[in-house]
Structure formats: C-alpha cells, structure tokens
C-alpha cells in the first residue's frame, strides 16, 4: 500500500512532542484524519494562534498574549521578591498554590554540560541586571532538584553573592505519605539538609 505522505508528515510532527513515540504519533495523525472538517479547522487555528498570539513577557519571560504578563502588571505583587524558575510551567505550578505574592524570572532552561547549555544560553545576566536595578530584597531559586537544576542554583547564588541580598532555595525532601525505603539518595539527602526542629 502506498504511503500517504501528508499523513506521515503529520505523524512525524506529532512525534516531535515530548513523550510522544512514533506509534502514538501515528494514532494522533489518524485521529485528525477522522475529525470533522470544522474540528480540523479549529485544530489548525488553535496551533496558529499559539504561534502568532503568544510571546514571552519582556520583563519576566512568562508567556502572555498581552504586551506584558498579568503578574508584571499586577500592582499588588511584591516586586522586591523574585522567584527564579527554569520554565513557564514551573511558575504555573507555583501560582496554583495561591500563596506566592512576588514576581518571576524565567531562565529558559538550566545549565547542562551534557546538552551544551551554559550560563550564557540562559537569562541569567538579565536576572542579575534586574536584581540590581529594582533593588530586589530576595531571590528564591526554584529550579528542579536535579543535577542540572542544582548546578544552575549554585551558579546563580554565587553570582548574586556580591549584591548583599537574600538568596534562598526551595526546600526539597520527602513527599507527604511516602515511605523512606522508596526515596532515592538525593531526595533523602535533601530531606536531611532541610530538617527543622519540631
């Protein structure tokens, strides 16, 4: 049977999404083929809208459809406290808590020697300039507790040492309801480091 080139190209496009293998991508492509014409047009419009309407906020790097993001525009947010995240989705997770009242700075990734990503590839200089210009009092580093995340956090904390501000790191440890014997060594070591008096 002759290959349908346009369907193959669609499947290859889906396979570029994180966590989507070729079989899942093929199923998705066939699902699009089975959609009604109206649903397909809505699907294409949604993809086009994402690429044309969404951009990063020039101040913090969060995604927005406006000139600046709603957090940077919010006068009730404490601009003296910056939470540094590697990616937009991390800020979204923090916002779901509804307890953080500061602002964000999105790095656009983490330092990773194995992937060839150095400090110059991230928005670290922009963070330093922002902290100096805005007289920031605290920088909360909220990169993931991985080797690359820890490397990035250490680099940023060393870089900000000269500015005489509070640089903190999110506490990591054992999740509620978990068992010690299921925890990995890094999680356990972070739990010991973050222990507190009861």
Task: Walk me through the structure.
The protein is α/β, with parallel strands linked by helices and 198 residues long. The protein is 43% helix and 13% strand. The protein is built from eight helices and six strands. It has helices at residues 5-14, 22-34, 37-53, 70-73, 88-95, 124-133, 147-160, 185-193, and strands spanning 55-56, 63-64, 78-85, 102-106, 138-141, 166-169. A four-stranded parallel beta sheet has the order 4-3-5-6. A two-stranded antiparallel ribbon has the order 1-2.
Strand order, largest beta sheet: 4-3-5-6
Overall average residue pLDDT: 90
Which H/E pattern describes the elements? HHHEEHEHEHEHEH
Count of DSSP E strands? 6
Any descriptors?
198 residues, alpha/beta, 43% helix
């Amino acid at each position: 049977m002759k290959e349908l080139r346009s369907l193959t190209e669609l499947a290859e496009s889906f396979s570029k999404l994180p966590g989507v293998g070729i079989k899942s991508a093929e199923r998705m492509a066939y699902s699009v083929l089975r959609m009604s014409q109206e649903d397909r047009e809505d699907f294409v419009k949604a993809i086009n809208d994402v690429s044309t309407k969404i951009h990063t906020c020039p101040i913090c790097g969060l995604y927005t459809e406006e000139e600046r993001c709603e957090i940077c525009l919010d006068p009730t947010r404490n601009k003296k406290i910056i939470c540094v995240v590697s990616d937009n989705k991390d800020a979204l997770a923090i916002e779901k808590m509804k307890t953080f009242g500061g602002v964000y700075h999105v790095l656009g990734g983490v330092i990773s020697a194995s992937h060839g990503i150095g400090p110059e590839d991230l928005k670290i200089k922009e963070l330093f300039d922002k902290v100096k210009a805005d007289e920031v009092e605290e920088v909360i580093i909220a990169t993931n507790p991985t080797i690359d995340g820890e490397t990035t956090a250490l680099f940023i904390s060393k870089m900000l040492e000269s500015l005489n501000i509070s640089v903190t790191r999110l506490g990591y440890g054992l999740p509620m309801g978990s068992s010690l014997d299921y925890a990995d060594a890094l999680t356990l070591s972070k739990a010991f480091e973050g222990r507190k008096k009861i």
